[in-house]
Amino acid sequence: MTSRAVPSAAAAGAQPTPLLSLRDVEVTFTTEAGPATAVRGASFDVLPGETVAIVGESGSGKSTTAAAVIGLLAENGRVTGGRIVFDGQELTAQGAGTTSRLRGSDIGLVPQDPMSNLNPVMRVGAQIVEALEDNGVARGAAARTRAVELLEEAGLPDAARRAQQYPHEFSGGMRQRALIAMGLACRPRLLIADEPTSALDVTVQRTILDRLDELTDELGTAVLLITHDLGLAAERADRIVVMYRGEVVETGPALEILRSPQHEYTRRLLAAAPSLASRRIQLAKQHGADTEAAADLVAMTGGHDGPVGATRAAPVADQPVALDVPDHIVEVSHVTKVFSLRGKGLFSRGTDFTAVDDVSFAIPRGTTVAIVGESGSGKSTVARMMLDLLPATSGEIRFDGEPVGGADRAAQVRFRRRVQPIFQDPYASLDPLYTVYRTIEEPLKAHGSGSAAERRDRIHALMADVALPPSLLRRYPAELSGGQRQRVAIARALALDPDLVVCDEAVSALDVIVQSQILHLLAELQHRRGLSYLFISHDLAVVRQIADHVCVMESGRIVEQGAADDVFDHPQQEYTRMLIDAIPGAGLELGLAG
Amino acid sequence: MARLVLQRLALLIPTLLGLSILLFLWVRALPGGPATALLGERATPEAVANINRLYGFDKPLLEQYLTWLGQLVTGNFGVSTRTGVPVLEEFLGRFPATIELTVVALVIAVGVGIPLGYLAARHQGRALDHTTVVASLLGVTIPVFFLAFLLKYAFAVELGWFPSAGRQDPTIVATHPTGFYVLDGLLTREWDASWDALKHLFLPALALGSIPLAIIARITRASVIEVQGADYVRTARAKGLRPPRLRRRVVLRNAMLPVATTIGLQVGLLLSGAVLTETVFAFNGIGSFLAEAIFSLDYAVLQGFILFVAVVYALANLAVDVSYGLIDPRMRVR
Asked: Which end of chain A is less congested by CB atoms within 10 angstroms, N or C?
């Protein structure tokens, strides 16, 4: 462990008593396979009013550590070693009693997923009132008034009316504000924020984190922020604790960790963080380096053999004529999709909702076109029309010169073979009852290509392409990690040798390091096979790394499109600028040395 | 909400119409006929023809059906061929008994099933849980009539704790303004009559409620276990909610959603089970009367009673759907 917390704090002079202090904390889960230690020897302090971020990938033990502090470990989990001291009180020795007394009143929690963390059958206001009442802060009418104030304070507009509504009437952002109001309702001295915004759009994420910052600053609340995004952590936290496989591998002031990471894992995390990677490209350019150098830089800091930027440039270099004679594999012209919503009354007519409004763009062969936008912008509807899963209301999509969605059955089968999807959630998009082998074999069988032996060879070649060992072929999706599943999904998509791959949020569900590996894999495959990608994402940082051409969508319309560098460096629209500013870590002073 | 109720009531009309056709054909498909069943050994061809003419069974099927339908619309459900009493009168005289029986059975099923399932879930994996799971499995597997016989033999015949048949001890002379014996006793302040009626109800209600009880306990258990692991329960704990409020307002209320649906489905099971239970305990409700009507091929009674029961079943399910909206705001139709 590389710890710089003690010297830096000592240098600051008189060290205040930490509000929360963890020493050699060990958390063990009893599983059917025997005890499994999830956290080992975790030690760090949180000073009063300070924001400390725990950063790590999923499975690193960061959420488990937080759960141990607030005493909400899963039933089979226990703190089996070390000490957790909150405000001078030992939480581990006295057992559950002390912790449950502190919960809500002294230690608050803002959980990760706003969709599943509110009681669905209770009004939002009442859910704050019950917290106020049970912690003895206020009761009855006073508690109800206070609940509205708290919601207002968390930035919920029209709070008095909203308090009377149920969670399902709230958007994700509104729910997260309600959860923040709940977490801070009893003015705790420590707030644990467990990935508080990872399920939200970037712009919403930014306003919510800003509000959380302001509130905790005002109230002097210490924050323990759990996140997988190093950029976000660096932007929001005073100090960072990096966890890897259940151990704290590095702690220190946020900027110091960012500028000179000591541990190998921190370096990898830093290289993979999309917010920082795209920032680095930008910085390199500002320093007078050209695109090529920036790409090299990414390759260097990324430490991977498939530099994204370099392969990105390659197809252009191979086909210099492409600039003069546009060779577009996809041409989308004036496409509109209208959904009719059912009317509410018995006789009222349904209303129309325009999800995609007069959208036009083209995908040059062998390149990546990205569509970015927030949820509800219509980007996924475009993807589904591109896959011919949904007919367009008007306008035309041409694939390789032929219109998509014709009645010709044979043409349809040909189209399905040449255009393949990769979806967001590798947990849901693979059949849990199919082995990896059968998953990849399925499209080959469906399109009747080759004998059993030929298929076998093809599947092995595909596994090699996506860098998976053949030993995984007999496994089921449940036995694979998220990254491995997404590789299987890619192998399945490539099985029929498609020309166009539609990636709908293909890396959004993955950890940063895995995300960066998959992005590299996609870039490398594009280079080798001359694939074209339609890349749908809400994450501008990811888009910056992979796209040649970017379309920004807002409420069904493309508000801006152009070459990726142009859009990111010289955004023309206010909306685009807002999206770019909302990337966490955008305002960071970043050392180029990595 | 009112719209949902009206819509569902409107849907009831085509449902009942379809059912009336099926019923009409089904009773006529039964072997024999009301005349032979009624006359028995005295069934000469002339006597049979006479009875058939009297009740109109000699007319073409379509005409018979339309006549019956026409009578239904005016509230005339026909006359029982066996007792000669109008079907409606027979039904209204017996229905309170069945309602009393099914309500007590449902109270036992819900009142024992939900707490049992809830406790099993809270003690998941321990002795109480295993016992509940096994016992509820037994409860589902044992046929109602068999359990009814067992209960009657053990507690009425051998131990003599409960009466073995009927609704009221013949030595008790009581007035019955509503036909609900327990309620009647309370209304007329004849406490002993009320108590006696309850004792008569207990064994049949227990037999009838056993399967719903087991099903409700199992669903409650599964549902509570699922809700206990939900994110919002963890968040509620993080808010510092005290355990009583957490259990009552967060866990139990959410866990009740699937249970409410189950209870609605049990009403059908209770009504069909009533036929068997009432027969075993000589309980004078629509169930035992329906059983006798089948043997005597009493067309009018079969058709009328089953239609009534269908309406009751539909209304019970509608009530459950409405209650579902009360428990779960997401289900409310705006």
From this structure: N
